[in-house]
Amino acid sequence: MVALENVLGTNLKSWMGECPSRPIRRNGFQNALQFFIALLLCCAAAGCNREEKRATDPSQPAFAFAGSASCRECHRDTFEQWHGSHHQLAERPIDPQLDSRAFEPERRFQHGSQSVRVFLSNNVPWIEAIGLSGKPEVHAVARVLGHDPLRQFLVEFPGGRLQAMEAAYDPHSNNWFNVFGNEDRQPGEWGHWTGRGLNWNSMCASCHNTGLQRNYSAASDSYHTRFLENGVGCESCHGSMQPHNDWQKQFGKSGRPDPSLSKLTRVQTQDYCGSCHSRRSDLTGQFKAGEAFLDHYSPALVDASETYYADGQVRDEDFEFGSFLGSRMHAKGVTCIDCHNPHTAKTILPGNFLCIRCHDGSRSDAPKIDPVSHSRHKVFGYSTEGAMTNFNLAAYDPATIKEKGGECVNCHMPQTTYMQRHRRHDHGFTIPDPLLTRELGIPNACTRCHQDKDVEWAIHHSSDWYGERLNRPTRRRARLIAQAQQLDPQAAPQLLAWLPKEPLPYWQAVIAGLLEPWAGDGNVSATLKSLLQHTNALVRASAARALEPAVHARNAEVVTALRQALKDSQRNVRVAAAWSLRAERKPGSRADQELRASLEVGADQPLGQMQLGNYFIARGDLQTAVSHFQKAVQWDQRSPAIRQQLAILLSQLGRPHEAVEQLQAACRLAPSDANYRYELGLAHNEIGDLSGAVRELSAAVKLDPRLAMGWYNLGLAQHAMGQSVLGLESLAHAERLEPAQARIPYARATILLQIGQRNEAFAAARRALQIDPSHAESRALLQLQ
Question: Smallest Cα–Cα separation from 206: which of 601, 570, 603, 595?
């Protein structure tokens, strides 16, 4: 008979096994991380005036910098398009003409429990806000991040840091507001303006400046960040132009082609757009125009997190590139510059005229669309019969157009507001489907616009207008993805069946990633292994990462295939394979070096420290792993999820009292989370505190009455304290919630036997054997009859 204390006592260590390589789904830290990375990588356009500074530090980019101003003489028209654009104004120094209005006269605004004061003194803007001390602190504004529709402000911090203030200015209304609304973030939080979530060096600088080197020192936890030019200058996208300038000065009138220039392909152009306009993990910190996106980044895809909706619509701040990769437009070869002027960042035609130039029936690869009959709305520039009317395209002003319902983008590129002010179009070109709103909570463009109507109204009209056409593969795919996101075991065979029918590589990569929980199954691992030979690197990388459970299951064929993937032509595939094989790679190998380099890129953030900790766990170096998790806790003291994972590791190292302390802190930070209470109960049992275990497990099942394992362990702990009747009641609760678990009736049998109710005990053991005929413990107990 298994001792009851062991049944409970081993649970904290075995509850998760190895800490996951990604943050646990739906924890506060992950949601905050997703929002802030999205928030700060590409916040808004910026103001005017520029600060041009040539970097002299030896850690600067090793290319000959010419500066955007040097392009003006020969490329005046292009330069003027760029000058004043959101790219040129991505970051700037303070400009009294632009900024005085925001700071003068002095004013205050309230958000949550906090008050912010802004004022001008000696022509220097100042912001007073609650700082790390917990008291109001006054900081001089160093630079401006953003211009329209909002402006944020950078202030200097020790260690070479700049921090982006939560306080933001709306130049249209001349009002101040907090970019997080009334969330009331506090000092010590990762996402407070003083925290690493709003650190400019790590989160903003690379996409808002030209030729940036972050220059983070892990030893001193400080930065020596340098850049060549404020804002996104010409050389951000075109690379070093000094050789071109030199050649032109010497041979420009010769008529010969310039050997220093190489024209970027359409794919290369798209890749450098994606380098900033995407939600992604940075693998190198060294991307340059002309290089492959997937050699430097791993983009966020639709997965089991809340990053995207199941149909591909953006949910968190995901920017444009990731959703665009999943669109049919991308699959047809459309790139960013087909719709956007790269120098102004504006669309090359306004409104529907941009879309109709391809969907007018002149192209064999784009279906003809009649905007009026297709949208069932009034359309600017068309009669109600669908004929184009006379109008002056040059005078077209979208802000004055009343017929918004007929705009293609309002149905297929719905807007989401980020940072309280910034409305951005979804670039997934998804199809509005109100039925998925009712079934899965996925937004639809109809009720986003008609906010006075309900989803049933939208379902009625869309079904009446489009009928069976709405029952498209995209609807069925979204349902299947939502099923997989809920870890429904029935999703795995359906994902396998869907995969060969899916025409778009992006969605094949999504399906591969969603198969990860079932990768230990032979059919799933075989399918994922075959995807390592896919022609698309996004699919190969997703499959390599998803095969990690098969590596843990010691699947030799998978291990061999992943070793081959370590030689893939794309770095993101090699890094994904190296992560799945991280327990066996030899330090110093190429793949391990690339993996370690990718981990070091994010080492100045709590998530990066967690990833390094997981790396060393796989290598068996738990002491080093603990130091990384402790640093993550230090950097984000209000994240319960980090403390939870540190507690697991401390328990594995035989430091259960410290594990209890971390879980107690997690419970204080998230008092309504039943899982943290449950784990704290197990930790109390591990240090021999049965009363504490009963107290915390009771609290856990009160918070979540459907927590079967909570009831199960509560029953065992109650019996261990001599409360056998209560223990049997708790186990009965657990059995009702999970009737297919043989260990629950077996646990009842052991308690019943110990309190002398032999017949009831043997009946419970027979129940366990009915559930699992191979349950050896129950069979052994029945030998006592």
Answer: 601
CB-based burial, 190-205: b 16+ in 10 Å, e otherwise? bbbbbbbbbbbbbbbb
Within 13 Å and on the Cβ side, how many CA atoms surround 228? 23
Would you say the C-alpha torsion 175, 181, 183, 188 has a positive or negative sign?
negative
Whether the bond into 105 is cis, omega within 30 of 0: yes
Show the tokens assigned to 712.
């199960």
3-state secondary structure of 264: coil
- Are the beta carbons of 635 and 606 closer than 8 angstroms? yes
Q: Which of 363, 276, 270, 272 is nearest to 325 (CA)?
A: 270
DSSP 8-state code for residue 722: T
Q: Please check the confidence at residue 457 and state whether its pLDDT lies above 70.
A: yes
Average pLDDT of 16-43?
33
Kindly provide the b/e burial profile for residues 359-370, where b requires at least 16 CB atoms within 10 angstroms of the residue's own CB: beeeeeebeebb
User: Of 494, 410, 487, nearest to 444 (Cα)?
Assistant: 410
How far is it, in rounded angstroms, from Cα 664 to Cα 641?
12
**DSSP summary character for residue 77:** H
292: Cα separation from own chain's centroid: 21
Give dist(CA 162, CA 224) in Å, integer: 11
Is residue 390 helix, strand or coil? coil
Residue length of the chain? 785
Type of residue at 735: E
* pTM, full prediction: 0.88
Closest CA to 242 of 264, 258, 218: 258
Three-state secondary-structure class, residue 341: coil
State CA 168 to chain mean position distance.
23
Give the integer Cα–Cα distance in Å for 23 and 26: 9
* Mean pLDDT, residues 779-785 taken together: 91
Q: What are phi and psi of 6, to 5 degrees?
A: -75, -35
Dihedral angle sign, alpha carbons of residues 593, 613, 37, 30: positive
Is the omega angle on the peptide bond into residue 149 within 30 degrees of 0, that is, cis?
yes
- In sequence order, the 6+-apart residues with CB closer than 8 A to the CB of 349 are 357
Torsion (CA) 440, 441, 446, 450 in degrees, nearest 10: 150
Half-sphere exposure for 695 (CA within 13 Å, toward CB): 8
What is the rounded radius of gyration, in angstroms, for the C-alpha atoms of the chain? 29
pLDDT tens track for 728-756: 999 999 999 999 999 999 999 999 999 99
CA–CA separation, 638 and 670 (whole Å): 9
Helix or strand (DSSP H, E) at 682: helix 674-686
